[in-house]
Amino acid sequence: MKNYTELPVGEYAKTNNVDILRAEVSSDIVDLLSSNTFNLVIAVSYGKLIPAEFITRCKYGGINVHPSLLPRYSGSSPLQYALLNDDLETGVTVQTLHPTKFDHGSIIAQSSAVPILDSDNYSSLASKLGDIGGEILAKVIEDGSFVDIKPLTNSYTRCFAPKIDKQERQALWSHYSARQLKRRYDALGPLFTFMDVNVKRKGKRITEKQRIILNEISELKDTNELDLALNLDELKECGDFSLVKDGLCIKAKEGYVLAKRVQMQTKAEDTPEAFIGTCRKSNGSTRQHFLPK
Prior knowledge:
InterPro entries: Formyl_transf_N, Formyl_transf_N_sf, Met-tRNA-FMT_N. It is a single chain. By secondary structure, the chain is an alpha+beta fold. It folds into two domains: 21-143, Rossmann fold; 166-283, Formyl transferase, C-terminal domain (Methionyl-tRNA Fmet Formyltransferase, Chain A, domain 2), CATH 3.10.25. It has seven helices and eleven strands. The longest helix has 22 residues, at 122-143.
């Protein structure tokens, strides 16, 4: 039997003696109709298509809250793509539930454009848009605009925001600028890269490509903030890195990023100082370099 972490709406339902009905697959949803009558479906972050049979048998059909200014970024990952593309704004849409497609319903209500700040990341955007979405949804229900729907139109171009592949977390030093890497971290969390490490296998020393995870990544906007002892000319190739006062300075396609936490393959996350120490033990005095791609 599955264990559930209850959402706030679930806690509210329990406190107020409102039945909670759970459905794992489409057939479970349709089966709910055998002993219940529903007026309206409200889908929020459900991630599955509500069966057309269920929607059509609800008096007012269904509505959905989506964290983008549709039709821009339809799909499962709108917040991530807004950050990956370094958009300046985003928003929230309340739409009807389409019976066969995700995010192809009629737009009932839409927020004004919400600025994406340089300090924003996935968590802060989700929190910000969650609050706005709750307010808009409440208004739609209170004023009954889901009953006699008057679809809204806008000038946004439709584009798709599919599920993010795990490989998108790789820091491709010769492909991404420092700004793009910072936004990739904001959207997806810790990034990974690779480096050649000397290891001992069966009594022999060999060079092995190992995964390195980088955390607390920021864009280095002012190189004057770096230690005077670091000559940036020494970081000649994309992926070259050096230890500085505030972390690990890494050369990108354009500019430099700082990483304040580093984790080597099979080891715990540690400070850049400890990482450099481990590198020197393994690789001696060889150049400090992450593989560019």
